[in-house]
Amino acid sequence: MRRYAAEPQEAYAISCEFCPDVVEWCPAAGCEDLLAYGTYELDEPSGKRRGAMHLASAEWTATPDADSRLTARLSALAEIAMPGVYDIAWGPTSAGLDGAGHQGPSSLMAVAVADGSLRLLCVSRNGGDVSCSHAVEQCQVLEECILTHVVWGAGNAH
Q1: For residue 85, which of 13, 136, 149 has the smallest C-alpha distance?
Q2: 101-137: per-residue pLDDT in tens?
Q3: Rounded distance, CA 127 to CA 145, Å?
Q4: Exposure pattern of 78-107 as b/e (b: 16+ CB <10 Å)?
Q5: Calpha distance 35→73 (Å, rounded)
């Protein structure tokens, strides 16, 4: 078995009401500390799907010991209940993308939901404040089906 110079270390753990299904760091400049994660649970007796899209901010600190390990602390910023989240994809980034007059970076997030709908959310940073809101009303992509994956710009040459 190959040994690496540094073994992975747990930096932080968080307990969720439902099972985590997807985790995505925000790629937007100035928002790299934002973590979106989706949860999902199927109540088999009732057939009801439950979950949420969570947004958190990570604060990293280095330990002062000789190992100089990084530790993290997650702060919850938003939780939006949905009937189960299968996938999250961060999309285009732009200042003032949401039209709400925010001065900092904004990014769209597409959420594939277990009821077959696609939710578009706008995450904006204005100084130290972060907001998460629906960019448009949900759009029902599939009837009586599930939507398991979403990708921005599939097939486009960048």
Answers
A1: 149
A2: 545 667 888 999 988 888 888 888 777 778 777 666 6
A3: 40
A4: bebebbbbbbbbbbebeeebbeeebebbbb
A5: 12
